[in-house]
Amino acid sequence: PLKSYAYYYYIGSAYRMLGNYPEASRYLTKARAGCPEHDSDLLSQIYINELYLLESLDINKAISYARKNKNSFKAKSQAYIISDEILSLGKSRQDRLKSLDSLEKKARKNDYLTLANNILFTLNKEKRDIDKLATLETILRTERNTYNLCRAIVDRAEFLVANGLYDKIKEIDIKYLLNIYEYYFSQRFDTQL
Predict the structure, then answer these.
(1) What residue spans of the chain are helical by DSSP H?
(2) 20, 31, 156, 173: which has the highest count of C-beta atoms within 10 A?
């Protein structure tokens, strides 16, 4: 049976993704309080969600929390890499981009493809137009997470349209977009597009 602390973690994580930060904080706090020390995998996931929650609420607190806890995890773990990602927020733009580029490669090398691709999404916000398409193609080739795959398809289509590259949009791309928008609408994601 599912332990109550694991239930609290999943609920807290869902609230964080939905942007309901007070509820996310409440459930993640309950999860941490109830999670035994031997459940290191779940403690790591709770920590990651706490970091992302703090990033949304107060970047300085997120950086401080990452700095304080990063070395509690193995250097190749997702928690460690995400800690470094959060710590990069305190760096200059140039150093941050260099750090994120290195973290993306590290995440990919350790087979954390969704994490690597999330870092690419962040990097893509800073890239020149010509480089954005290659990044999106990398995400499309390697992503396993359905949500991120949808994001990449939509971002790619928006990029192609914005740059007048209509000839690169194929019939299958249009079908994917229709399915994605239909799914987003049915899930009430339409308010976030």
Answers:
(1) 4-18, 21-34, 40-57, 59-69, 78-87, 93-109, 113-124, 129-142, 146-162, 171-186
(2) 31
Contact 51, 63 (CB under 8 A): no
Contacts of 101 (CB under 8 A, 6+ apart): 123
pLDDT greater than 70 at residue 60: yes
Residue 35 scores a pLDDT above 90: yes
Q: Is the dihedral of CA 70, 102, 136, 133 positive or negative?
A: positive
Q: How far apart are CA 32 and CA 94, in angstroms?
A: 35
Share above pLDDT 70 across residues of the chain, in percent, rounded to a whole number: 96
User: Does 192 have pLDDT greater than 50?
Assistant: no
